[in-house]
């Protein structure tokens, strides 16, 4: 069963990552074992502290939800070596009547070519006008004829080739084989056998016959093979001993990779119109075969969104995925679904508060370590209960999770907020919790850093502003704001790149040198973005 990914938003914060892990754990505990937590970016320093504190590894990182070749129900026929006989390859084609061709691989598993039914047909048609067999490995001939060697000379032969001749009666001298470079096929015909051995023909095939005792001691270089088939069938089968590497297509072969997007593959199929396409993995080894049929109903990736419901904040390729559920505490945005889904959106300060209620609804209690992480996530998103988004329910839930985990909320909060900013680059800090918005035609980006010493952080003001300026120019942002949210001061120092008047009107402050202090402003979601939205509306 393919996984159902549970993922938060881009540039994930602690609430986002822990919510994905907690919800996946909840569903798996209820028997839905395919749920898998994922994230869209590297965990922040704060999140890493929480994960390590409670003994968890970061969830799997995914980069997109585009429907890829790996998501298709493609065929996985045998991948044949170029040394395999035409006969064996044809047997495999007969076992897979829906396939027009089979992939042919080199010894290392990488693509050599493609063997189609028409390649085999063309080869056999050419044998009607040509009776010459190019040198093929002796083992190949023994295989297709189900033959066995009858003399010592055969043990010294590695390959066999020449004109294929079915021996005629002695009375028709002019029709007998004349060239020692011949593969002679005959039955219980002692004189024919003697003639062939004396001429040292390349190979003598005895059909439903044995080598007479008096001829076994005859000096010869001829390889003698016995077969249970009659002469007519042996003459046809012997051409099937040729390696398929000689007849398969090796030029103009078009392959696709497991990670290729289905939309791109459709363009390739329309352009080339081959009946089938070898599928390669990241090491260019053949893993299957793709046909047009497989593209008709692609199997979409499945995803549950937590802590967001906005396309610009979600995983690239979301429009090609199947969204199963949304669990969030933000405003409803622009994500659309193909069918009705389960949505749980509640006005609380943390997604983990909602998920804790879902544990309760199912009569389950999270493990002590998971409860500790959920308590830390609630503290993070509510800025130690100082954010205006915080509700009594957040506080009660965090306290319950802390009791289960046997931790102190105050100590946990101070550990998170003090350690999460130490020794980190301005770029890491700026983009650890960064979101973009489009409001009434205005492009806005708001980054937030929760800390316990915002004045100390302001010593890096010029470093932040320089980085913000170049980023805003690159992204063509109308306004970019960095909130240095101080847990102890219960307010935010803001740095911004954009119009001074916009900041003045939105927050009723007089900014100076692209900086201002906003008392009691703790929430991006409930205070900063709504104030700017009201101004631009």
Question: Can you describe this structure?
Answer:
This protein is α/β, with parallel strands linked by helices and 537 residues long. Among the domains are: 183 residues, inorganic pyrophosphatase (n-terminal core) (Alpha-Beta Complex); 111 residues, DHHA2 domain (Diaminopimelate Epimerase, Chain A, domain 1), CATH 3.10.310.20. The protein is built from 19 helices and 23 strands. Strands 3-2-1-16-17-18 form a 6-stranded parallel sheet. Strand 2, helix 2 and strand 3 form a beta-alpha-beta unit. The two termini are 47 Å apart. The mean pLDDT is 91.
Helical coverage, percent range: 25-40%
Specify Rg, calculated over alpha carbons: 37 Å
Strand order of the largest sheet: 3-2-1-16-17-18
What is the annotated CATH architecture of one domain? Answer: Alpha-Beta Complex
Class by SSE composition:
alpha/beta
Q: What is the first-to-last residue Cα distance?
A: 47 Å
CATH class of one domain: Alpha Beta
CATH superfamily of one domain: inorganic pyrophosphatase (n-terminal core)
Stretches where pLDDT is under 50 for at least 5 consecutive residues are: none
Beta strand count: 23
Question: Count of helical segments?
Answer: 19
Q: What is the beta-strand fraction?
A: 15-25%
Shape from CA axes?
A: elongated
Averaged pLDDT: 91
CATH topology of one domain: inorganic pyrophosphatase (n-terminal core)
Sheet with the most strands, sense and barrel status = 6 strands, parallel
Précis, in short:
The protein has 537 residues and is α/β, with parallel strands linked by helices. It has 19 helices and 23 strands. Helix 1 packs parallel to helix 11.
């Amino acid at each position: 069963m393919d996984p159902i990914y549970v993922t938060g938003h881009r540039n994930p914060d602690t609430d986002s990552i822990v919510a994905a892990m907690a919800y996946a754990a909840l569903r798996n505990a209820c028997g839905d074992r395919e749920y898998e937590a994922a994230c869209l970016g590297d965990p922040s320093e704060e999140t890493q502290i929480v994960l390590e504190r409670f003994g968890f590894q970061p969830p799997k990182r995914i980069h997109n939800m585009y429907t890829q070749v790996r998501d298709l129900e493609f065929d996985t026929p045998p991948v044949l070596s170029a040394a395999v006989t035409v006969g064996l390859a044809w047997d495999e084609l007969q076992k897979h009547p829906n396939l027009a061709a089979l992939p042919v691989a080199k010894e290392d598993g990488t693509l050599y070519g493609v063997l189609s039914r028409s390649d085999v047909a063309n080869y056999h048609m050419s044998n009607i006008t040509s009776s010459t067999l190019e040198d093929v490995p002796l083992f190949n001939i023994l295989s297709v004829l189900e033959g066995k060697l009858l003399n010592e000379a055969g043990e010294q032969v590695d390959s066999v080739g020449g004109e294929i001749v079915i021996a005629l009666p002695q009375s028709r001298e002019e029709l007998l084989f004349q060239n020692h470079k011949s593969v002679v096929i005959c039955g219980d015909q002692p004189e024919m056998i003697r003639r062939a051995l004396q001429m040292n023909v390349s190979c003598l095939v005895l059909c439903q016959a044995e080598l007479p005792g008096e001829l076994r001691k005859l000096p010869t270089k001829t390889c003698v093979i016995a077969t249970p088939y009659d002469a007519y069938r042996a003459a046809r089968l012997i051409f099937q001993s040729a390696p398929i590497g000689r007849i398969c297509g090796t030029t103009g072969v078009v392959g696709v990779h497991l990670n290729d997007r289905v939309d791109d593959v459709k363009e390739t199929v329309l352009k080339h119109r081959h009946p089938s396409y070898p599928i390669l993995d990241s090491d260019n080894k053949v893993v299957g075969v793709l046909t047009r049929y497989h593209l008709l109903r692609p199997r979409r990736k499945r995803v549950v969104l937590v802590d967001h419901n906005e396309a610009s904040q979600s995983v690239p390729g979301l429009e090609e995925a199947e969204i199963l559920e949304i669990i969030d505490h933000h405003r409803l945005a622009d994500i659309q679904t193909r069918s009705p889904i389960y949505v749980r959106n509640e006005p609380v300060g943390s997604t983990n508060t909602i998920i804790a209620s879902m544990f309760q609804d199912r009569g389950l209690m999270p493990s002590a370590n998971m409860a500790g992480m959920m308590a830390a996530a609630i503290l993070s998103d509510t800025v130690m209960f100082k954010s205006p988004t915080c509700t009594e329910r957040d506080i009660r839930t965090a306290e319950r999770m802390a009791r289960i985990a046997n931790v102190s909320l105050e100590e946990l909060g101070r550990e998170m907020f003090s350690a999460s900013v130490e020794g980190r680059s301005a770029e890491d800090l700026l983009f650890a919790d960064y979101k973009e918005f489009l409001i009434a035609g205005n492009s806005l980006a708001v980054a937030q850093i929760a800390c316990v010493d915002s004045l100390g952080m302001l010593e890096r003001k010029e470093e932040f502003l320089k980085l913000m300026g170049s980023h805003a120019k690159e992204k063509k942002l109308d306004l970019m704001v960095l909130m240095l949210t101080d847990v102890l001061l219960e307010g935010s120092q803001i740095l911004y790149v954009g119009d001074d008047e916009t900041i003045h009107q939105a927050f009723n402050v007089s900014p100076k040198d692209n900086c201002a202090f906003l008392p009691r402003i703790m929430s991006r979601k409930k205070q900063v973005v709504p104030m700017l939205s009201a101004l631009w509306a």
